[in-house]
Amino acid sequence: MTRAGSGRPGQHTAGALHRWILSLVAVVLAVLTGVPVVLTAHPAAAEPTGSNTSTGPKFLKLSLDSVTPTAITATSDPYFVVSGTVTNIGDRQVDDVSVRIQRATPVTSPSGLRSALRLDQGSYDVTGEFQDVADQLTPGQRKQFSLTVALHSATELPSGISTLDITAPGIYPLLLNVNGQPAYGGQARLDDARFLLPVLGIPAAAADPKHPAPPAVPAAPDGGPVATTMLWPLADRPRLVAGKPGSADGEALLTDDDLAASLTSGGRLDQLLSALETTLKPDTPRDKSLNTSLCLAVDPDLLITVSDMKDGYRVLASPSDPDGSTRAGTGDHAAKAWLDRLRTLAPSMCVVALPFAQVDPGALAATGDITLSDRALNAPADLVDQLLAVKSVRGVALPDAGSIDTEGAQLLAHHGYSTALLADNAVTPADGRSNISSAKSPAAPADSVSPDLVRLDGLTLPAPGGGDPAPGAPELHAATFDIWSATALAAVGSHPPTPPYTPDRVRYDVTNDSRAARLQDALGAITWTALNPQPGRPRSLLLMPPQQWGPNRDEATALLGQLDLMYRDNLAAPRALTDLLAQQVDPQPYDLDYLPAAADEAVPGHFAEPVRQQAHNITELMSALADVPQQELSPRGFLTPLRDDLIRALTMSDRRAGGAQADTFAQRRIDQTTRTVDDLFRSVTVLPPGGVYTLASEQSPLLLVARNDLPVAIRIKFRIDAPAETNITDIGEQVLPAKGTRSFQIPTEVSDSRNLVIPIALTTPDGVPLGNAVSVSVRSNAYGRVLAIITASAGALLLLLAGRRLWHRFRGQSDPADEGLDPETRRRVNRFSRAKREQRKEA
């Protein structure tokens, strides 16, 4: 059987059709002439690139299923087994299906961990023998296979075993090549699968007889073991429905129930935690190297959501309809169990808080709201400590994109952060120095390399009141992580993203590779630095997976096992995150280099203004709320969820999956929060009295009733636009009880008897309007200045007449006013007058 070592189906389609036509012509000529005709087809051309895609139709799909063992050590067997599956994905039968393994030269530069997987098939020049997989595969049919491969052997190998001539440690790119003959075509290479094989040591049985066998435990490369730190992220996209303020006993409302599936056994978050539990085993005596080098990076928004779920919650029936019907959530027990497991594990590990809801620091800075920034950047550490009963690492920021702009960096510095974990190509030397690896080898592709901890230029906090920084003022540093291992780690698991720090020259769709192949690439990437010391490069490695990482338990365990293997083989040494942050800072200044891909994926700028406005409104309402001891809900507990909603609108979560959907989610959160905040301000109002309000006198008080529908007490002031005819006393700041009403007597003086219209409204103590203004119609019994004159005149006249009567009576004279009296009354008056005269005579 003849097999092609190169070529792809897309390149053979035209040739196959040509050969089919030639065959048909030959048959016709043979029938007509009786003479057999032999036509020779051109052989398949070699494929020019190493991509796993083609422009023409595909017939077979080759997937790597497993590599056993995943890494080779000095104590391994001299053989390893590669298993895979070949599937007929075309529309025609394929005959004579066979596979072989090939290898390229070991990776010699960090970028080669990525670029080697795109090499032309011809670059994999060390080849094994083809082994049959199936005589034929019909459309839709699949067949599994296994290849046993020897690293190296100078003696004759057993039948069916290929050798790859590997005689030294290194990271080796391998390729599986599948050949077959589609119907109406010739033999050709129909697909391939590429992956990396870490070789930490050469087993003695497989060593080249010309060279001495290596020791069972290899010595560390020059420079000693590489100091290694790894972050282990636990995060999820925001799930809580926006626009729901805090309540004392209300159930949480989630957009969907996907988080329940993630927390349940077999879910993403469950498997990430299970891998740690299985590997670290905090309750058993074991080497603590992994514990030392690992640090949990936890999103406090995830912890808040899971904590709310464990007490019962509801889920929207339709995630796109936040005001629609809801149903009971199913993950309360899973949430409680997962949170309890995390609380058990976390105290034995380093823990650091991620920014709240994976917020974009640049977008947060654009809002210009200090209170919102404080919640997003400073509160997470306290939240993680409270919910997990730990003391988390402080002062270190982990931006999701691995790259920040100047405004975001200044915001971090303003909020007390001393270090940001950034991609090593997100900072550049301020003096224009070349990166270490590119300076070392100008002909090689430039690999971005920077020291472990660098000082960012121009980001020192200003002195109070402005001006030059004070001596000893805090600075923002950058701890850089390796982009090549981070890119490979991001590809592990389900829904792998391509991070923004991955250089354009090595970007490709990793979903074309199987999960097993992507895991092998990650194992190779995290091992490369330990096996390849570079002059001038620090012997250190910071491993940073993406924050919403998706490996399953087996994949995560394999990665942890690889780290443990490196520690045991003295190729790496565990380094705590706190030790990394405490080490000496490179004295040379570095500039931020905001990566274009990070800028493209950032939260769009048009969200900043509506978020800023609503954050300002929440702050104004917060300043008016009163914290009453007997009140069940505090003002902070009531309004903080609304601030969290605004932060979630600025999340980086899901932005690599497509900006349009992320923009829809963000706008929906802002709209829902805006409606709720408006409703809260309308919930405190003065009640309009029915009809005309009549004052008993010109100084009678005005009786008003105010209502507070909020579950917290609020401080208010009356704003009364009194007309000129009235004088209304300002009663100052008052308190309305939660969910209650209160009556107020407003001292009022009215100097007009006409109906007066008085506008009345409520405001916060700072003058922010509350509720709706009302107009009160007031009528007074007062008659004004004319009434006062008439009353005074009548009083004077009354006194005059009374005085005249008394004068006449004391003198014993009849008063002319008594002339109209009846005789009996006159006699009594006269007797009274005579008695008075006699008294005066005796006197």
Q: Rg, please?
A: 43 Å
Question: Could you name the ranges where pLDDT drops below 50 across 5 or more consecutive residues?
Answer: 5-23, 25-54, 213-217, 434-446
Number of helices: 22
Task: Compute the average pLDDT.
Answer: 84
Summarize the main sheet.
6 strands, mixed
Any idea what the shape is? Answer: elongated
Determine the fraction of residues in helical runs and give it as a percent range. Answer: 25-40%
Q: What structural class is derived from the secondary structure elements? A: alpha/beta
Main β-sheet, spatial strand arrangement:
16-17-20-19-23-18
Could you give the count of β-strands? 34
End-to-end C-alpha gap = 166 Å
* Estimated share of beta-strand residues: 15-25%
What do you see in this structure?
With 843 residues, the protein is α/β, with parallel strands linked by helices. The chain is 32% helix and 23% strand. The chain is built from 22 helices and 34 strands. The strands form eight sheets. It has a six-stranded mixed sheet with strand order 16-17-20-19-23-18, with helices on one face. A hairpin with a 5-residue loop joins strand 8 and strand 9. It is elongated, with a radius of gyration of 43 Å. The relative contact order is 0.09.
